[in-house]
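Appendix C reproduces, verbatim, an entry submitted by the partner laboratory led by Prof. M.T., so that reviewers can inspect both the input and the predicted structure.
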Amino acid sequence: MTQSRLMQRDPLPTRRELMVGGAATLGALGAAGPARAQMHGPMHGPSQPIFTLQQVCYVVDDLDAALKYWTEELKVGPFFLFEHAPLENQIFRGEPTEADVTLALGNSGAVQVELVVQHNDAPSVYKEWMDGGRRGLHHFGYMPQDYAANREHFIGLGHAPAFECTIGDSPLVYFDMLDTLGHYVEFWEDSAVYREIFRRTEEAARSWDGSDPVRPWT
């Protein structure tokens, strides 16, 4: 781990507790972080409405360099690190896979910015993107009201599910829209797991003073 990763820990439940603990664990987070939100008051969920653009993602070669640029030059942050993120039940283009990735999540206003680096050679939408010589925006992310119906709708439009997995038993899917938009589009289930991730990153950004720009998700 480089020096830029050695940041002060946030006194909130662990990533494992958040991802596995479900609603009981998430309920305990409601009172967490009043000092972080003291400038604008506490939040109880992401402020972006359902089915609006909530996330933009970039897949990068050098995560530390990307984090330095986004936090110092673009003033986006703080970013929270999901080292070797727990992406479970991975399916890439119909076949099981085990992509090992680290994610960094931070907000610019109500929109979340995701930076991703893949550590292994397992097939994935991240490796496919880089191997194709693509750079720039990798995907937009949305949270539909009805995840299952939305998934079937886009399959019906002819978009193939390129990658699917679960985080804390909550599903997500990437659709191949390379020919339509030039990148993928990701949809998440409207669940407590994802809502808490969005709430926490957005709330941290609202009162960020530039300190501790990269933080472990503990």
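DSSP finds five helices and eleven strands in the chain. Additional entries are available on request from the coordinating office.
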